[in-house]
Specification:
The chain is mostly helical and 234 residues long. The protein has one domain. The radius of gyration is 18 Å and the shape is globular. The relative contact order is 0.15.
Length: 234
């Protein structure tokens, strides 16, 4: 079933590629531009304001993309232009729930971060293991609780508890999907890291980041459609 989840998610992207670009390209480009400014400015890197701005930009622009994509795939809400609709009420609810999820992810990763810090000097093997394990733990909590996000995009009531129980029905497939998504993201990031800094590496970071974002949102859309709306996987 994990492969069906992944395949359906990828089909959503590539079978609707033009719409995917229309939903995401403007907000994603705006977010990426902010990251470039922060990354290339010594003042911005040293400023807590710009660090906070980067986090808030990720929440806002990520939610903007996700709401539009969920609404298109699940509700047939096609954007009419290259400036996707904001859907303010849904966007506000989405950001609040996304913020809560981020807090949950940080708390869930905290024990591994503490273990890594404590064993950094004495047992580096445990440190490395802990750091590698963090993305998998974060992904597990994100996708198990994350069905509340497509629900918010569609203005449908859904609690975190219902999301956890629904994804628990296929917990094994969800776990395998998380492993695939984490490894896929890691490969794309590693390729970019290995490149010398320049126009090519920036272009790669832009394309890879877009693909990582769209895959994550599409997996959430797939899980919501299958588990909550009882749609078929294909």
């Amino acid at each position: 079933m994990a492969w069906q989840i992944i395949k359906t998610s990828l089909n959503f992207i590539f079978n609707n590629f033009a719409i995917a670009l229309r939903v995401s390209i403007l907000p994603y480009t705006a977010y990426f531009a902010i990251l470039i400014v922060i990354d290339t400015s010594d003042f911005a890197q040293q400023s807590r304001f710009f660090s906070l701005a980067g986090v808030l930009a990720a929440l806002f622009f990520g939610a903007w993309i996700a709401v539009g994509w969920h609404r298109y795939i699940l509700n047939g809400d096609t954007p009419n232009s290259w400036i996707p609709g904001l859907h303010w009420q849904n966007l506000r609810s989405y950001i609040l729930k996304l913020f809560f999820l981020v807090v949950v992810l940080v708390v869930s990763a905290l024990p591994f971060i503490l273990v890594a810090f404590v064993t950094m000097q004495s047992v580096p093997v445990i440190t490395n293991f802990s750091l590698v394990f963090i993305p998998f733990v974060a992904g597990l909590f994100f996708f198990r609780f994350g069905l509340v996000l497509p629900a918010a995009a569609l203005d449908q009531p859904l609690s975190f508890g219902i999301s956890w129980r629904a994804t628990g029905e296929i917990s094994g497939a969800v776990l395998i999907t998380i492993v695939f998504v984490t490894l896929f993201n890691g490969v794309l990031t590693s390729i970019g890291t290995a490149m010398p800094y320049g126009p090519v590496s920036i272009l790669w970071a832009y394309a890879a980041g877009w693909m990582q974002a769209m895959l994550g949102v599409s997996v959430l859309t797939t899980l919501y459609g299958y588990l909550i709306e009882k749609r078929d996987l294909y």
